[in-house]
Amino acid sequence: MLSVRLWELPPMDVRPHLRVERAALLELLEGLTPDQWSAPTACPGWSVKDVALHLVDDDLGWLSRGRDQDPSGLLSGFSDHREFVAALHAKNDGWVKSTRVLSSRVIRELLAFAGTLMDEYWDQTRLDAPTGRVDWMGPDPVPVWLGIGRDFTEHRVHGQQIREAVGAPGLNDDYYLGTVLRIFIWGLPYHYRSMTGPDVDLAVEFTGEAGGVWTLQRRKGVWGLVEGRAPGASSMVRMPSTTAWRLFTGALNDQQFEFVEETGDLGLTRHLLAARSIII
After folding, report:
1. What is the pTM of this model?
2. I need a labelling partner for 158 at 20 to 30 A (CA). Which of 14, 193, 249, 250 fits?
3. In angstroms, rounded to a whole number, what is the distance separating the alpha carbons of residues 148 and 122?
4. Crossing angle, helix 144-166 and helix 173-184, to 10 degrees?
């Protein structure tokens, strides 16, 4: 089995999922009480209102940088990744702090307005065209469909954080969680880039209705990813899909680590537990 390069994959069109996610979140936000808007979320120091404001910033940033080709909001000139992450967190936190004066109604209206413009923008793009880098996938441009996929995971994860903060049920978890994991999984080859050695196969399995199986393959020092379990995979990591998305977003607690199964080379498998498909 040969590793499939990212650009050889058939595009995954998540635009319909993103529209549903936007609409469902707006419906949820419309019914929240003031206390629920102030409820703390899994994002440290951020309330439900803060997370919603961050999503407004996310959409407006995409429109400015992508649709309008305005580089004003780009962060650059850092000597290492830690400096970039610190600057990004400061930028995000600065936006939230400066916009907390907005009412919940204004926030909903901004999300609806920006979301409509984003849908129009994405509809005009070719899914197989190149777009900017996705930091947790590497320094090179990725296909547009993965850029849209990253946007979908951003809205999906933050939407789930809001739902959990206010005790609201998830949105068709199996269907949408599976889509999120199929985006997140493509960060693994870049995450494993520092692990050198002979050719090796590592199977990664997410169980449940939203699950799937992939194989990380190191060939001549280069990591690739294929869907399915390769016959030569002697090591494996298995976990529930509901555990996997929390792992990739850095939200897994110690008790949830108990659901992670590892077999084979623990040096290979343990490295996966530090994988993140967000900038952190």
Report:
1. 0.89
2. 193
3. 7
4. 130
pLDDT tens per residue across span 92-110? 999 999 999 999 999 999 9
Return the pLDDT at 1: 36
SS3 content of the chain, % helix, strand, coil (to 5): 55, 15, 30
How many C-beta atoms surround the C-beta of residue 144 within 10 A? 19
How high is the mean pLDDT of the chain? 90
- For residue 176, count CB atoms less than 10 angstroms from its CB and return exposed for 0-12, middle for 13-18, buried for 19 or more: buried
262 - beta bridge partners?
237
Cβ-based burial of 249 (10 A; exposed 0-12, middle 13-18, buried ≥19): buried
d(CA 48, CA 147): 25
pLDDT (0 to 100) of residue 219: 92
CA distance 111 to 55: 7
Please say whether the beta carbons of 166 and 41 come within 8 A: no
What is the distance, to the nearest Å, from the Cα of residue 165 to the centroid of all Cα atoms in its chain? 19
